[in-house]
Structures are given as C-alpha cells and as structure tokens.
Amino acid sequence: MPYKDKQQAKEYALNYYQENKKELSERSKEWYINNIDKRKASQREWTKRTVEQRKQKRLENLEAINKKKEENLPKHILGTLKQRCKKRDLEFDLEEVDIVLPETCPVFGLKLNYTQGKGYKRDGYSVDRINPSLGYIKGNIQILSQLANFMKQDATKEELQMFADWINRKDYKTSEII
What we know:
With 178 residues, the chain is mainly alpha-helical. It is 55% helix and 6% strand. The chain has helices at residues 6-19, 21-34, 36-71, 73-88, 146-152, 157-167; strands at 125-129, 141-145.
C-alpha cells in the first residue's frame, strides 16, 4: 500500500514484517536454495562493479593528490628531501625558497616536467647535490633533469670527460656500445 508519508510507509512495512515473519523467512530460504546461479551471478556483478568503483575512486584520489603536489612542487620536493636526509642521516638546512625550479634542464635544455608516480622520467625534476659528500644544504643543490642527474650520479668529472671524448671519436660506431 503506497503511502505519501515516509513515516507511515515505514510503520506499515515494519508491521507487515512482524505479522508475516515466519512466512517471509521460509520464502527467503526457499528462494536462496533454488536460485544458486542467480545469487552467484549477482555476487559476481556486485564484485565487478565494486572493484571498478574502487579503482575509479583511487584514480580520482591519486589525481587530486598529484594535482596538489604539482601546484606546490617546491614544497613537495622539500618534504621529500627532508625525509631522504632523515633516512640517510644527511645534513639538511633548505627552505622552500631554496628550491627554484628552472623551466629547462641546465645541462641538456630539456623542458622539465612534473612527472607523476615513481620511476625514471628523462624530463623529470631531479635535485642534485653538487658535492655528494655534503647533505642537502644551501648552496649545494641544483635542479637538473633526471637524465642529467643519472648520468653524473656515479661518474667523476674526468670519467665523464673520457666518456664524451670516446663518443666524439671519428671512428665511434654504435655497435661498439654492445
């Protein structure tokens, strides 16, 4: 019986359930036993729908987090460096104003981009310690592309020069790299 008033409809449903509890329970058990395939299909559909909804929600949350990071990238980089210093027991005295993000890599001229997620991105921002024996302190950092920072990571200035000389030889062939 349709009621326009929600409270009346609720009271009616509760009364109906109380008066017909046993019959409703038996009908429910019978349907449960006779409709195994329908129940399983319904469960699969619900699981699929829920998994998709959760994936979508995670993506939306990740996009919001990354947007927030991108909007205040120097602050995000500063926090990451602070954690890294704590973990590696390195000296740290930087402030947000010390993180100046160039538009292009000073080494290669690549346009630098904020890249989401972890992993190597050639054109991603990378904080380089000019003197690796010092921590992240004022005057000891520069912002490069990840490509430039990875190339100079373990090599000395002399080793990099030797590499450049080797690349610039007239008889250099790509097959020699193998």
